[in-house]
Write a structure and sequence with these properties.
This protein is α/β, with parallel strands linked by helices. The protein has eleven helices and 13 strands. The strands form three sheets. The chain has a six-stranded mixed sheet with strand order 5-6-7-3-8-9, with helices on both faces. A four-stranded antiparallel sheet has the order 11-12-10-13, with no helix packed on it. The protein has a three-stranded antiparallel sheet with strand order 2-1-4. It binds adenosine-5'-triphosphate. The site of adenosine-5'-triphosphate (ATP) has 18 residues, from strand 1, strand 2 and helix 2.
Length: 364
C-alpha cells in the first residue's frame, strides 16, 4: 500500500512508525489499525491557501524506560518535537531538514496521522491528522526512500491495481494518472517486473507512482533520492518539479541531499533538537550561517596578499588570490576597491557550499 496506506495501517511495506525506535515507551504506530475508509475525497472546507499544512506549537514527547539495575527502571522523557510552528501554502515545496535525531520523522509521522501530538495544533488540507486519518489518507501521499511501500513479490502493475481498489480511484482517473507517471518516470518496460527485481532507482520511481495514483494534494517525500545514481536522481527531481508546477501539489521534502533542496525548494524549514531554528528562503541560510563567498582574482603579476576593506585573503598562488567576504554582502564595491588599487585581469565568484552553511547552523 502506498504512503497514504501507511498512514492507515499499511500491509505492504510496513508503516513508517513501525521502526520508530527500539526504546520507544509507546508504540510509534499508536494510531495504526484504522483502515482506509469507504468515503471519497469528501468536502474538507477550503483551508486558507497560506496554511494548507498548518503546524502550531507542535510537541511530541516519548517516555523511555531504561533498566538501571536488576529490578529497577527509570523513566525518561524525550522531547522529540519541542513546540515547532510553520505553515505551508498550497502548491509550495519546502525542504524540511535537520541533523539526525532532530525530530523530522516524528513531525512527519504526526502530519501523516501515525503519531498523535502531545500538544499543539495540526491541520493538513483542513484535516486533523490524528483524529481523521481515514479522511486524511485521501489527501496525502508518502514516499520513503529507504523502504518500499509496494508489494515485494508483485509486479508493479498488480501493486497499482491494489492501490486503485484500496483508494477506490475512479477508472478514468487511475488510467490517466498511471499513464502520466509511467511516461514521465519511464516505467513502461517495468510494469510486469516483480518489485524485488527492480533496481533502487526503478523501485523509487515505482513508489512515487504508487503514491500519486489517488491524486494527493500533499506529498511527503522522505529521502526520495537516497542511493540513486546521478541519472535517476535527475529524473526524479525533474518529475517532482513538474508535478509541483502542473498539479499544484504541496510537497514536504526531507533529505540529507542538499542538491535536492537546491533544485526543488525555495524555502527550507530547519529543525534541531526538536526546535525550529530557521524558516525562510534557501538563500537566507547563508546569512544565518554567517557563510562567506569567495572572490577569486587574477592579477597581472604576483604582488603578495592584497589588502582590501571587507575581505580577507585566504589563499595565494602566484598572481591568483582567493578573498573571502560575507555571503550576505555585495561583491560590487569590493571589486571596485580592488580594481582601483591592483592590476586586476580577471575574477570569478564562488558561492558558499550549502552543506557547510548548514553544518555551521547545526553546530551553533
Ligand atoms: N518512538 C520513540 N520512542 C522514543 N524516542 C523516540 C521515538 N521516536 C523518536 N525518538 C527520539 O526522538 C528524537 C527525534 O527523532 P526523529 O526520528 O524524529 O529524528 P529525525 O530528525 O527524523 O532523525 P533522522 O534524520 O536520523 O531520521 C530522537 O532523539 C529519537 O531518539
Amino acid at each position: 500500500m502506498t504512503a497514504g496506506g501507511d498512514a492507515a495501517g499499511s500491509t505492504a511495506g510496513g508503516a513508517p512508525g513501525a521502526t520508530a525506535g527500539e526504546t520507544a515507551g509507546e508504540p510509534a504506530g499508536e494510531a495504526a489499525g484504522e483502515t482506509v475508509g469507504e468515503t471519497g475525497h469528501g468536502t474538507v472546507g477550503d483551508p486558507a491557501r497560506d496554511a494548507f499544512v498548518d503546524v502550531q506549537e507542535l510537541v511530541k514527547t516519548f517516555r523511555v524506560r531504561r533498566r538501571t539495575g536488576m529490578l529497577r527502571r527509570t523513566v525518561r522523557e524525550v522531547r522529540a518535537v519541542d513546540g515547532i510552528s510553520f505553515a505551508v501554502p498550497r502548491g509550495e515545496t519546502i525542504g524540511f531538514i535537520g541533523p539526525n535525531g532532530a525530530g523530522k520523522s516524528t513531525t512527519v509521522k504526526m502530519l501523516t496521522g501515525i503519531l498523535t501530538p502531545t500538544s499543539g495544533r495540526l491541520r493538513v488540507a483542513g484535516v486533523d491528522p490524528a483524529r481523521e486519518r481515514t479522511r486524511l489518507v485521501r489527501h496525502i501521499g508518502v514516499v520513503f526512500g529507504q523502504r518500499t511501500t509496494l508489494w515485494w513479490d508483485l509486479p508493479l502493475r498488480d501493486s497499482y491495481e491494489l492501490v486503485r481498489r484500496m483508494y477506490r480511484i475512479p477508472a478514468a482517473r487511475y488510467r490517466a494518472n498511471l499513464e502520466r507517471c509511467v511516461e514521465l518516470l519511464e516505467l513502461s518496460g517495468l510494469l510486469d517486473v516483480p518489485v524485488r527485481q527492480l533496481s533502487l532507482g526503478q523501485r523509487m520511481r515505482g513508489d512515487i507512482t504508487a503514491a500519486l495514483l489517488h491524486d494527493p494534494e500533499v506529498l511527503y517525500l522522505d529521502e526520495p533520492t537516497i542511493g540513486l545514481d546521478v541519472v535517476s536522481k535527475a529524473r526524479v527531481r525533474e518529475f517532482l518539479r513538474d508535478l509541483n508546477a502542473e498539479r499544484d501539489t504541496t510537497v514536504l521534502l526531507t533529505t540529507h541531499d542538499l542538491t535536492d533542496i537546491e533544485q526543488l525548494c525555495r524555502r527550507v524549514v530547519v529543525i534541531d533538537h526538536g526546535r525550529l531554528v530557521y524558516d525562510g528562503a534557501l538563500a537566507g541560510l547563508h546569512e544565518v550561517g554567517e557563510s562567506e563567498r569567495t572572490l577569486v582574482v587574477d592579477l597581472e603579476r604576483e604582488v603578495g596578499p592584497v589588502e582590501v576593506e571587507g575581505a580577507r585573503v585566504v589563499r595565494v598562488e602566484g598572481p591568483r588570490q582567493w578573498l573571502a567576504f560575507p555571503a550576505s554582502g555585495s561583491a560590487g564595491p569590493l571589486v571596485s576597491r580592488l580594481a582601483a588599487e591592483y592590476p586586476l585581469v580577471d575574477l570569478s565568484i564562488r558561492e558558499p557550499d550549502i552543506e557547510s552553511v548548514i553544518s555551521r547552523l547545526y553546530g551553533g
